[in-house]
Specification:
With about 260 residues, the protein is of the alpha+beta class. The protein has eight helices and seven strands, in the order H-H-H-H-H-H-E-H-E-E-E-E-E-E-H. The chain has three domains: about 40 residues, no CATH class; about 30 residues; about 130 residues, Protein Transport Mog1p, Chain A, CATH 3.40.1000. The longest helix is centred in the middle third of the chain and has 30 residues.
């Protein structure tokens, strides 16, 4: 991979826009190219800096009153409204209704297919989750912290993500915890907890949700991989594996207890 071709790829990688093959190629390239590795680090650091920065600026006192006074003054000086003849007004109203109906039909056929992929909010689709799962199975990509102790894995995320993922050890139930790592989904950093079931790897992606409402588990399948999604205590969860649906659902039920 030539370095002069990497500028756009690095931006796409940081934004989560590359496909699995390009992502793996770039990850292998930065291991041997200090310049590209530095540029990738710069982009990731900049992105995290913007996310953590307090960029909110409170409006000065009195601004609202000035705006309202200005609107009132404009309304007083506006020319008188010319009344439209009733037949023409009714015709325009019917045209407005027809245009609204057309927009509804267009939105239904264009947007609805993207929404029925599953209950995942903020645009995280099955393809992106499965791609991250497959990427993790490549040598050296599965874990950033390797441990079967939940009291080692959970604190490892401190300072690396802006939330505290719940971590459970389910070894007694046949799903031992083996580690965790940072991952990237839906244009944000997420926690990935790694479990095992008879040599089958289970990735559990966790990220915070604005809604505090709970949501029952929902199963999906994509390219031979099974996923279970649920929401609980302000967190969204997705467990993904090549396990059969029944065992993965059993695992998800154990995590929700």
């Amino acid at each position: 991979m030539a370095c002069d071709e990497n500028a756009l790829l690095i931006h796409g990688y940081v934004d989560g826009e590359l496909d699995l093959v390009r992502s793996l190629e770039l990850e292998e390239h930065v291991k041997t190219c200090p310049d590209c590795a530095q540029e990738l680090w710069n982009q990731q650091t900049l992105r995290k800096g913007f996310r953590s920065a307090n960029l909110y600026e409170r409006a000065p006192k009195g601004l609202e009153a000035k705006i309202r006074a200005s609107i009132a003054q404009e309304a007083e000086s506006a020319p008188a409204v010319v009344t439209m003849p009733a037949p023409r007004r009714r015709a325009l109203q019917w045209l407005a209704v027809a245009a609204a109906a057309a927009i509804v039909v267009f939105t239904t056929f264009r947007v609805l297919p993207a929404l029925v992929v599953g209950p995942v909010s903020r645009g995280v689709v099955a393809e992106e989750i499965v791609s991250s799962h497959i990427r993790s199975l490549q040598p050296g990509h599965l874990m950033d912290v390797q441990s079967t102790d939940q009291h080692t894995v959970k604190p490892w995320f401190n300072g690396k993500v802006d939330f505290s993922p719940p971590v459970k050890d389910l070894a007694d139930e046949g799903f031992p915890l083996i580690g965790g790592r940072l991952d990237y989904l839906d244009h944000r950093d997420v926690a990935a907890l790694v479990y095992e079931r008879r040599k089958h790897i289970i990735n559990v992606f966790v990220w915070p949700e604005e809604s505090k409402a709970s949501e029952a588990a929902h199963s999906e399948a994509y390219q031979g991989y099974h996923m279970v999604f649920w929401r609980s205590s302000g967190m969204y969860f997705c467990a993904v594996s090549d396990l059969n649906t029944a065992e993965l659902q059993e695992f998800a039920n154990l995590l929700q207890k």
